[in-house]
Amino acid sequence: MVDGLLVREGEDGTLPCLVTDPAVNHLSLLPCTGSALPAGLIYIAHPQRGITIRNVSKAFEGCYVCAGEMDEKPVKSSQYNLGVRLVPETVPVISLSRIENVILIQGQEFVLKCSTININHDISLSWSIPSEAVRSTNLQKSNILPGSREYKLSTGLSIESVKMIDSGVFRCDARNEKGVSMATVNLEVYEHGFMNLTEGEESVMEVREGESLTLSVEMTSYPRPTEVYWTYNNQQLKNTSEHVITLHNQYISDLRLVRVHGSEGGIYTFSAYHMYASANRSFTVHVICKPVIVSQEGPVDGQVRCVASGYPVPKISWYYCEPPHARCSHLLNATQADEEFTLVTVSGAEFGRNEVESRLNVTKGKFHTLECVATTQGEQAYTLFSISERTVPHKLFTPLLSGVVSTAVLLSFFLVVLLYKYIQKPKYEIHWKVIDSFDGNNYTYIDPTQLPYDPKWEFPRERLRFGKILGSGAFGKVVAATAYGLCSADTVTTVAVKMLKPSAHSTEKEALMSELKVLSFIGNHINIVNLLGACTVGGPTLVITEYCCYGDLLNFLRRKRDAFFSSKTGDGYYKNLLSQTQPSRSYQKRSNQTEWCDDKDDLSLDTEDLLSFSYQVAKGMDFLTSKNCIHRDLAARNVLLTQGRVAKICDFGLARDITRDSSYVLRGNARLPVKWMSPESLFACVYTFESDVWSYGILLWEIFSLGNTPYPGIQGPNQFSSLFNLKLIAHTMTNIGSVTTTQLRVSERELDR
């Protein structure tokens, strides 16, 4: 029989082998195997209490028997299996899965794991969390570490969707026989991401030319910034040997200016941003430059001239002395010039080297040497003049000077001509104007550059695949493209993309951005070419709009002339298009097609189609009017057709070369569509809702003439005033149908009023 005995390490353990027969003597302890006792084992044998092993250690574990002699014969007790329970030396060491401070945004998941290791099972873990926090706690689990007899205990805590009330200190407590230890994590939950720049060194700094300077910015941000960069005078800097940019752990950025040049003073700005916020900090760097004498002149007509440069602006002083001397100003008896001298700044830099000029009227007197001294922050530069020389009068009109003046005049003439040509060159601008307020015919327009731009329109430019060019002009082009994932993740959509040419100026880039803002401000309508997205970062600006497969209305009508079928309307024909709820005949024939649109339309054209085009354009213009928007260039060339012969109003000016388009006539420095303009627009530059109505009337004539040019009898700009003689209108614009006749009658009644 084997009896078990468990003893804590370091304590005494007693084997209860009591002597029941007084004849037994020489009581001792032996291993069951008969081998020697473990080293260091000390025991005390007592017949009435048994054998006590002192200060038990792990090495003493094993099987033992009590042995003695009775009648000179050996006797043994039953076997005892001694087990030793290890005791930890210190309180438990806790390991947490997160750092001391955790920052999250509302809705994110928070998971925290706490674990510890102990020499035995006598250990426990518990959580202490903010009272308001709602959490889910995993059950504790333990396991024996491979290759050792230690036990690992761990427990987890998770919050699936954190809230701001979950902020606070999360504490894990571990308890063993030696005591209690704890570890904490501070959780901060914010409503949205943030970015803050910590206050650091001064924002205005000075550095001597040739020395190096380090600009450092430290920030706190969540999430980590997606992009950080430095700019110098609004130009982004690259990491070079002269501008060393270092980023430490995404939260500290250094810009080291190596051996600063005198021209490198200015404003250096650090910028960082992520999807929630952005921040920037600017440093003003002044470069202290030693003074240098740039030029000297004289004496000429009793006057000397001295030009010096440096930063801060050098102070110029004049000294007289007798030769031979290297420096007049170093003499104790040097005479400083008492005469008045002029000091003029020749060229100034706000942050670096400046040039200053001083002129002094001199007389020979008893001195023969004059010194010009330029001083800046203790640094000096000088030059010497000999005033004993014979003065040389100015010869203003020498042959060389005359040649220089003639060349300058000729160059100035060419510059004026080039400037005039540049001013006369048409500038790209958006025709649509959004009205802020009006009093009678006095309209106040909203500056489109001040309209907001919603980042929701941003679309990744790498998801665009460009195709054929739909139109090209002097400023840009419109290209058909395929957009992947525009509406949803797995959709493929054919779109039209407006873009500028690489040679576009900043004003034209601003105009395209203004067009984007106006389209997003107006909103969507079935009879407007709607905005679908834009790419404004990471490259040139791209405006993504609906693709209209049949092109513009003007060319569509001209293509369909031979296939036109004229319905018999009669003199009293009337059709209430407002009550029309069904699509047009051509649209019904296409209603079973998919979103993909064939560029070819083989169907015929009839009067009902012309009425439908007129009605749809009217609905689109009514929508623009409701948004306080004036089109200013309504014509068949600016109406596009798409699947189902749906008419959509647009501004196609970007992709049209108006210098070669006969519809636009040069007046001043602008090209205007004079045949579509109302009298007040043409002669007084007044654009109103009513002027759009006038243009709509011209558009009706284009539609019902199947794409003819208005006023065919008017050719040159000298006949502009005759455009508004109604008799001439009636003569030049032949009666295409009752719709055009009605338009002329309405115009006559309006003018009579």
UniProtKB/TrEMBL annotation:
Catalytic activity: L-tyrosyl-[protein] + ATP = O-phospho-L-tyrosyl-[protein] + ADP + H(+)
UniProt GO molecular function: ATP binding; cytokine binding; growth factor binding; metal ion binding; transmembrane receptor protein tyrosine kinase activity
Keywords carried by this UniProt record: ATP-binding, Cell membrane, Disulfide bond, Glycoprotein, Immunoglobulin domain, Kinase, Magnesium, Membrane, Metal-binding, Nucleotide-binding, Phosphoprotein, Receptor, Repeat, Transferase, Transmembrane, Transmembrane helix, Tyrosine-protein kinase, Ubl conjugation
PROSITE patterns per UniProt: IG_LIKE, PROTEIN_KINASE_ATP, PROTEIN_KINASE_DOM, PROTEIN_KINASE_TYR, RECEPTOR_TYR_KIN_III
Record has RNA-binding as a keyword: no
Entry's localization field: Cell membrane; Membrane
Signal peptide bounds: none
Domain Ig-like intervals: 92-188, 195-286
InterPro entries, sorted: Ig-like_dom, Ig-like_dom_sf, Ig-like_fold, Ig_I-set, Ig_sub, Kinase-like_dom_sf, Prot_kinase_dom, Protein_kinase_ATP_BS
Coiled-coil blocks: none
Pfam families assigned: I-set (PF07679), Ig_PDGFR_d4 (PF25305), PK_Tyr_Ser-Thr (PF07714)
GO cellular component: plasma membrane; receptor complex
PANTHER family named among the record's database cross-references: MAST_STEM CELL GROWTH FACTOR RECEPTOR (PTHR24416:SF599), TYROSINE-PROTEIN KINASE RECEPTOR (PTHR24416)
Protein name, entry field: receptor protein-tyrosine kinase
Protein source organism: Sinocyclocheilus grahami (Dianchi golden-line fish)
Lineage start: Eukaryota, Metazoa, Chordata, Craniata, Vertebrata
Gene: kitb
